[in-house]
Amino acid sequence: MTSATKMLFVVGRVEVYLVLFQLVNMQTVAAFTPAPTGPPPPTNLQFTTVGTDILEVSWTASSSAATYRVTYEPVGGAETVSVASTTDNPYTITGLTAGTLYTVRVYGISNGVESGPLQGDQGTSECNYCHDIARPSLTSVLFVLESVYRFSLHKAIGF
């Protein structure tokens, strides 16, 4: 009768299974087999929508990934939030804090094995309406000042 013990070793970035076979005559035979490898990582991370509390991310799909896992965290801060696996691309991350820089990672998943991450940083906007506030030009400021001056002058001399 033969029994086998399987152990996973990580050597650098390579995972290797060591399988020990216990043979009938009590000899132990070792065999190394490579651990299953994940798909290539997705590429071309894009932040397609940026709001005060959302980031919409898209990416170029990995050639063999069936699903993706998206994670995000504030830069230099709190714990990583992992989104359950998704097939949505683009994917919208909600519930973020305005004016905060986030690190976003996307992993391809194939047969239960993840790829390396595709990573990028993007900040949320501080104000939904900031783009609607126009800075006045010097000409418009001077026009307003001139109008106020003329109005004041006319009132002072009785016109």
Keywords summarizing the entry:
159 residues, mainly beta, Immunoglobulin-like, 2 domains, four-stranded antiparallel sheet, three-stranded antiparallel sheet, 1 helix, 10 strands
Walk me through the topology.
Blueprint: E1 3-11, E2 14-22, E3 28-34, E4 43-50, E5 55-60, E6 67-74, E7 81-82, E8 91-93, E9 101-110, E10 113-123, H1 138-156
Antiparallel strand pairs: 1-2, 2-3, 4-5, 5-8, 6-7, 6-9, 9-10
Question: What report would you give on this structure?
Answer:
With 159 residues, the protein is mainly β. The strands form three sheets. A four-stranded antiparallel beta sheet has the order 7-6-9-10, with no helix packed on it. A three-stranded antiparallel beta sheet has the order 1-2-3, with no helix packed on it. A three-stranded antiparallel beta sheet has the order 4-5-8, with no helix packed on it. Helices cover 12% and strands 46% of the residues. It has one helix at 138-156; strands at residues 3-11, 14-22, 28-34, 43-50, 55-60, 67-74, 81-82, 91-93, 101-110, 113-123. The model has no long low-confidence stretch (mean pLDDT 75). It has two domains: 3-34, no CATH class; 43-132, Immunoglobulins (Immunoglobulin-like), CATH 2.60.40. The protein is elongated.
